[in-house]
Amino acid sequence: MEPRTTSLLALFTEGRTRFTKLLDQLTEADLPKKLAPAPNSIGFQVRHIGDVELLFAKNVFGLPGVNVHASTVAKGHDTGEWTDLAALKAYVQESADTLRRAIEATSDADWDTVIETKEFGRKTKAEALGRIVTHTAYHAGQLAMILKYG
Asked: Which structural domain, as residue segments, surrounds residue 23?
């Protein structure tokens, strides 16, 4: 792997630890927990992180063969269906592995390629990586608060 890609992969991996450390603590009983008045449960948040990581691998990084049904994005709200801890953990492991492959497939020169999405406009792939890393960390913070006070 090229040096810039190696560094950005390390950034992604380290940035995601806030989330992965919380996953190790979760129990199935935690998944429906919410903090009022926030509408989204822990189960929804975990699934949402996986959905968005897969969307980034497919739409931002253009990794071929990524199949994603981003149910949290499509539904736009918590329906209470995300209650299977083993399935959620498998899903977010798959999303991390897929996004990792997308990052690894990006050449150093390609990090400056500008992409455009309706969600966040025009960004270089490097800037978009910053967006997904902070997205995951943001929701990991929400999960930590729900675990602590929910």
From this structure: 3-149
